[in-house]
Amino acid sequence: MRKSKIQKILDTVRALEPAEQDRLLRFLSENLPLPAKPLTEEQWLVETLVSGLLERRPRRPTKADIRAYEAYKPIKIKGKPLSETIIEERR
């Protein structure tokens, strides 16, 4: 299988001496633009919608949703934890 360009670059960087890797890191940090400040929630939402990570804007939880979340009580079961049973059955 043919390696992608990025994989070739990563392999080359891994093969560099530590001093060369440091020099590359300094070069990248000085020459790549970084966001001046973190994205706001709205900016993040717009970017995820545009990129296709989200298909639609999630709705805000209602007061009923919040009450239901706060009132949630896990079901007690006898025996070992259910997660252990699931893991055993997958083996």
Q: Quick one: biggest sheet?
A: none
- Provide mean pLDDT, rounded: 89
- Give the terminus-to-terminus CA distance: 32 Å
* SSE string: HHHHH
- Per DSSP E runs of 2 or more residues, the count of β-strands stands at 0
Count of separate DSSP helical elements: 5
Strand content: under 5%
Q: Helical residue percent?
A: 55-70%
> How does the helix and strand content classify structurally?
mainly alpha
Low-confidence stretches: none
Report Rg: 24 Å
Shape: extended
Overall structural domain count: 1
Task: Name its key features.
91 residues; mainly alpha; extended
Could you explain how this protein is built, in words?
- With 91 residues, the chain is mainly alpha-helical.
- It has one domain (5-71).
- The chain is 59% helix and 0% strand.
- The chain is built from 5 helices and no strands.
- The chain has helices at residues 5-15, 18-31, 41-51, 63-71, 82-90.
- The radius of gyration is 24 Å and the shape is extended.
Write the layout of secondary structure elements.
Layout: H1 5-15, H2 18-31, H3 41-51, H4 63-71, H5 82-90
